[in-house]
C-alpha cells in the first residue's frame, strides 16, 4: 500500500512543495466586499487562522470569473471589466500574503456557478437568466413545492454558446 503518512512533505507534479499532505478544502466564505473582493477584516482573519493551522496546502473558496453570475451574493469575484486591474490585483495579492504568512501555499479556485446561480446573486439584471453548458433546470424533486422553488430561485439557465 502507498505512503499514508500525512505529516510527510509532498511535491506535486507542477513542482509545488507541500510541508505535509493535509489540504484545507475549498469552501464558500461569502465574505467579499461589495465589489466581490477579499478586503474585509473578517475575511483576512479567517484565512490568517487557516494559515496558522499547519495545512500543507490551502484551496480558497470559489472565486467567480464573471460578476454577473455568483453562487451567493457575497461571493468573491475576479472581474476587471468593472474594476481596475490594479485594485483587483492588490486585493488578491493581500489574500495571497495572508494565506502564505506561515509558509503554506494556496491555490485559488476559479468558478462559474452555472445553473446554481440564484436570482439576485451577481450583478446581472433581475430578469437576465444565468448561463450553463445546457439549458437544464435545477431539480429539487417532483412535488409542486419543490418544482416551484427551483424555478423561482434558480430558473432555467440559457445554454452557453462557443462564442
Task: Describe the fold and architecture.
The chain is α/β, with parallel strands linked by helices and 163 residues long. The protein has 3 helices and 8 strands. Strands 3, 4, 5 and 6 form a 4-stranded parallel beta sheet that branches. Helix 3 (144-153) links the parallel strand 7 (131-132) and strand 8. The N and C termini lie far apart (47 Å). The mean pLDDT is 90.
Task: Report a brief summary of the structure.
This protein is an alpha/beta fold and 163 residues long. It is built from three helices and eight strands; from the N terminus they run βββαββαββαβ.
Protein traits:
single chain; 163 residues; alpha/beta; 4-stranded parallel beta sheet; two-stranded antiparallel ribbon; 3 helices; 8 strands
Secondary-structure map:
Blueprint: E1 10-11, E2 17-18, E3 23-24, H1 41-51, E4 57-64, E5 76-77, H2 85-99, E6 106-111, E7 131-132, H3 144-153, E8 158-159
Parallel strand pairs: 3-4, 4-5, 4-6, 7-8
Antiparallel strand pairs: 1-2
- Give the biggest beta sheet: 4 strands, parallel
* Helix/strand/pairing category: alpha/beta
Number of distinct beta strands: 8
Secondary-structure element series: EEEHEEHEEHE
Low-confidence stretches are none
- Overall geometry comes to globular
How much is the radius of gyration in Å? 19 Å
Helix content: 10-25%
**What is the averaged pLDDT score?**
90
Cα(first) to Cα(last) distance is: 47 Å
Give the number of helices.
3
Strand content: 15-25%
Amino acid at each position: 500500500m502507498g505512503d499514508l503518512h500525512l505529516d510527510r512533505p509532498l511535491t506535486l507534479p507542477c513542482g509545488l512543495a507541500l510541508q505535509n499532505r493535509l489540504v484545507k478544502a475549498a469552501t464558500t466564505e461569502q465574505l467579499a466586499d461589495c465589489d466581490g473582493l477579499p478586503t474585509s477584516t473578517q475575511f483576512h482573519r479567517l484565512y490568517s487562522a487557516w494559515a496558522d493551522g499547519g495545512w500543507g496546502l490551502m484551496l480558497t473558496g470559489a472565486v467567480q470569473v464573471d460578476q454577473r453570475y455568483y453562487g451567493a451574493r457575497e461571493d468573491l469575484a475576479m472581474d476587471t471589466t468593472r474594476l481596475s486591474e490594479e485594485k483587483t490585483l492588490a486585493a488578491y495579492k493581500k489574500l495571497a500574503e495572508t494565506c502564505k504568512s506561515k509558509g503554506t501555499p494556496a491555490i485559488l479556485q476559479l468558478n462559474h456557478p452555472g445553473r446554481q446561480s440564484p436570482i439576485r446573486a451577481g450583478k446581472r439584471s433581475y430578469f437576465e437568466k444565468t448561463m450553463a453548458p445546457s439549458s437544464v433546470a435545477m431539480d429539487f424533486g417532483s412535488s409542486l413545492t419543490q418544482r416551484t422553488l427551483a424555478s423561482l430561485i434558480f430558473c432555467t439557465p440559457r445554454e452557453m454558446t462557443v462564442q
